[in-house]
Structure formats: structure tokens, C-alpha cells
Amino acid sequence: MNALLLAYKPAFISSNGFLTQIKRSYNTSKAGFSGTLDPFAQGSLLIATGTYTKLLPFIKTEPKVYEATLWLGAKSLSLDTENITHIDSTPPLDSSFVREVVESFVGEIAYTPPAFSAKKIQGKRAYAMARLGQSIELAPTTMHSYAMEFLCYAHPFISFRACVSKGSYIRSLGSLIAQKLGSFGTLSALKRVSEGDLVAQRGKIIELDPLKTLPYPTLPINPHYKEHFYQGRKLTQNDLDSSVQAKVDLDKNPRYIVQFDEFFSIIQLHRDGSISYLLNRIDYAHTLQKAR
């Protein structure tokens, strides 16, 4: 079964565990998601089943917006509530100073991913190695923070909203905030509010129409060349409907969707007039946006 789903993952279940539930519900063995949510985290998770798993790299899931609560004085190996080793008492801070520090984390931010992460080391997940007590050394990297919003401070808890690039670790961001405040800390709560324009609803699964979710316009094709698409033959931009050729803007939209009754394809137009297939013959499941 082909389906594109926007689901709300509850806290305290792994993304793979939640995906297993979805696979059972939709009676499918093939499924994937756009980006892992930590087991303690909750929120939006874009899921695809069947051949729609091929669509995931093409769907706009950036920026990602998170709401998090940082627990000052709590020490955790994973920077979340799963592996707390001890909790220290910390003196209250001036609220305006806390706001200033939180909202200063905008732009390119250098950090080291936590050992308990989905990063791979020689083909193995870092979190799997960390759980076995193995020594983990992850390379420093960067994330981009588009905006940071201070939400509230009720000592020792600081809540904030972060709008960040794909692949960012909010646990590491929380740790950096604590360090700049002269302390250490771990996240006690984390929610992914949205991925791009996709916002899940708690307790519901929304079935998305892929043609409305993919960030590409649809181009009509000259009926004379319809059979070419069925066979996956090479086409040129001269095969497009003449009424739309003049409207093609390669700087704005080099990628387009071509749709037929049974399937659709994603193509890329090149300046030399050629066309390449990014995905061809994706069976179209006629789903409407609805909530279960």
C-alpha cells in the first residue's frame, strides 16, 4: 500500500517502534520516516509506506521547529531524561539574562552530537554503541538556527522554541545554552512542532496527497508523447505542452511533476533542453487529506 502520512509520535516510544505500529495498522512491510525523533520526544513525524518511501527525500521538511524544556543542574549521558546520572542544585538566575542567552543562539552553531545519537560510526549507530558502554567520539559539526524564542523560566526549568536546520540536535543546543549560563543541563521535554509546513495533530494520522505535498508544480505533457513516459524514454523540453514552455523558469523551478491516471513522475529540466527522471512511474494512490 502506498501512503504518505503525517503522524504525532507520543513520548517514550522510539521512532522505529512507532513506525512498527503504523506498519501493522496499514498492513504493510515497507515504511520509513523523514527524521528520527528521540524516544523521550514527541511530535510531528512524516511517514511513507510502499513506494512512497521514495518521495521522502523530495518533500520539504525544513526548517524544523521544536519546543524544548531545559533542566538546569541535571546531568545525563544522553542529554535527556533517559540517562540521568545526578542532579545538582543551582542558584536561580535573572530571567532577562536567561532570555538574552537563549535568544543569542542564532546563526551557524558549532557543536558535538551526543553519544546517544543516530549518527553512524563505521556503520553502527552511536546510540547502540553507547548503550553497550563503548567509548564514543563523534566529530564536531554545525547546525543552523534560524530563530530562537524564549518561552518561560521557572527555575530550574527553561522553555524555548527553536527553528533549526535539518539534522540539528536540540539536546546539544540545550547543553550549549546551559554552558553559557554557567551551568550544565539536560532536556526534560522535547516536542517537534513542525517539519517545513507539516504540522501533525496529537492522536491523529493525516493522509496526505503527495501531489499537494511535494514542493513542485505540475507540468502538462503533449499527449503525443504520453507513451514515452510509460516506457521511460528520454524526452526533451519540446515534448512539453507548448502553452507552458514559455512559463518554465529553471532558476525558480527546475523540478516538476508530470501526472497520469495511474502514476506520476518527478522530472528535472536542464538548460540544454534535456529532461531527466528523478523518479518515474510512482503509482498514484488517490488519497484525500483526512484524519483518522
From TrEMBL:
One term of GO molecular function: RNA binding
Domain Pseudouridine synthase II N-terminal residues, every copy: 23-170
Keyword Ligase: no
Enzyme class: isomerase
UniProt gene name: truB
Top-level taxonomy: Bacteria, Pseudomonadati, Campylobacterota, Epsilonproteobacteria, Campylobacterales
Name this protein carries in UniProt: tRNA pseudouridine synthase B
Family note: Belongs to the pseudouridine synthase TruB family. Type 1 subfamily.
Keywords: Isomerase, tRNA processing
Gene3D superfamilies assigned to the protein according to its UniProt record, in alphabetical order: Pseudouridine synthase (3.30.2350.10)
